[in-house]
Amino acid sequence: MADIKQRQSNIELLRLVAMFLIVFTHTNFFSLGRPKIAAYNEEPFWITMRFGLQSFTYIGVNLFILISGYFSIKPKFRAVCAFLFQILFFSLAILGIIFLVGLVIDHPLVKWKYLGDAFLILTRFNWFIPSYLILMLFAPMINSFCQNSTRFELGTFIILLFAASSYLGWSERYCKEFNDGYSFVSLILLYVIGRFLRLHQCWLTNRSWKVDASHFVIYVVVNTAIALWRMNNPYKMSLFALNNPIQLYGAVCFFLFFTKIKLQSNVINTLAKGTFGIFLLQMHPQVIPHFRKLIQYLNSNMQHGLFVATLFVVVLIFCVLGIVADKPRQWLWNKVDVPLMNFYERIKAKASSYPLFR
I need a labelling partner for 296 at 20 to 30 A (CA). Which of 32, 77, 183, 204 fits? Predict the structure, then answer.
């Protein structure tokens, strides 16, 4: 099945939902820590809800890569430059805002070392950025392999890599390359699954959306139940790893549910253009520590029901801010794009005259 240029609004809506889930999952274990058995004995319903929410929201990153595979990444020079430009824009823009706030309150909030950090795409939180950048660079080879492989060959590749990820990278953790799914190798598996679902019909794509929805609910219940059980029966496999095979299947079910929705909206397509800005805003090294402190403060001063409702509002606000903040980035990139591409073409033409590049 050939990719079409017009964005499908059902998948673009899923892109927005996936980013909402990524931000929301950072309000749970990442900010408050994993619940202990003592906490469960005191408040079993609340801890069960926390595990359930973690199971539901933890699929966000996997959804994002499945979407990339479904549409396929086309890493031209312009696309890679736009990706790096977006990262640099948010790094510097957020530092600039923090600097201005420091001037207003007459208390410096930005140190010179922060400026250097803004040029680093790899931080202790943003493992995703370098992994996705590598995926972009390898995408032409992966796309060619997927396009030229038979349905059987591509399916076999997915099964073998899935087996290696499940056994060597998750169950036994022999291979650190999988790193609980937080790695370039794990992104390849998700990307190829996304390509397979786009290129080939199978029992997954042909079944009803009702089956997809029910299987996703079953995943949440089963994953939550096992997570609660392992509090008293610890073992090394983590239920909240991106390469957890149960979680992978849950993400595929959620993804397939959206592929079977008929929807076309220019508004959704426009909003989805700023999706990655949400991630860059929340995971900025100068933002994420304060985000965690905010969540911890709300948790300490609110009843559980009000706390969960407030989390939805906070996450929604972050999503809106990220999309709005990406608008000036889009405007500025449109101004930079043409001169940059002209410069690239001149360098490319000049380089082609040398024997080494012929």
Answer: 183
Say how many CA atoms lie within 13 Å of 123 toward its Cβ.
Answer: 19
pLDDT tops 70 at residue 133: yes
- Its pTM stands at 0.90
Q: Give tens-digit pLDDT for 8-21.
A: 899 999 999 999 99
Q: Which long-range contacts (CB under 8 A, 24 or more apart) does 112-115 make?
A: 114/285, 114/286
d(CA 81, CA 87): 10
In contact, 161 and 153? CB cutoff 8 Å: no
Q: Would you say how long the chain is, in residues?
A: 358
Q: What is the pLDDT of residues 270-323, one digit of tens each?
A: 999 999 999 999 988 888 888 999 999 999 999 999 999 999 999 999 999 999
Contact yes or no for 227/51 (Cβ under 8 A): yes
Q: Which two tokens stand for residue 64?
A: 């994002």
> How far is C-alpha 29 from the geometric centre of its chain's CA atoms?
17
3-state secondary structure of 262: coil
Q: Who's near 104: CB < 8 A, 6+ residues apart? A: none
With beta carbons less than 8 A apart as the criterion, state whether 193 and 137 touch.
no
Taking 3-state DSSP, the helix, strand and coil percentages for the chain, each rounded to the nearest 5, stand at 75, 0, 25
Q: How far apart are CA 19 and CA 320, in angstroms?
A: 11
* Sign of the CA dihedral with 265 first, then 270, 272, and 273 last: positive
The Cβ-side half-sphere exposure at 77, using a 13 Å CA radius, reads 10
Query: Per the structure block, which two tokens stand in for 279?
Result: 């991630």
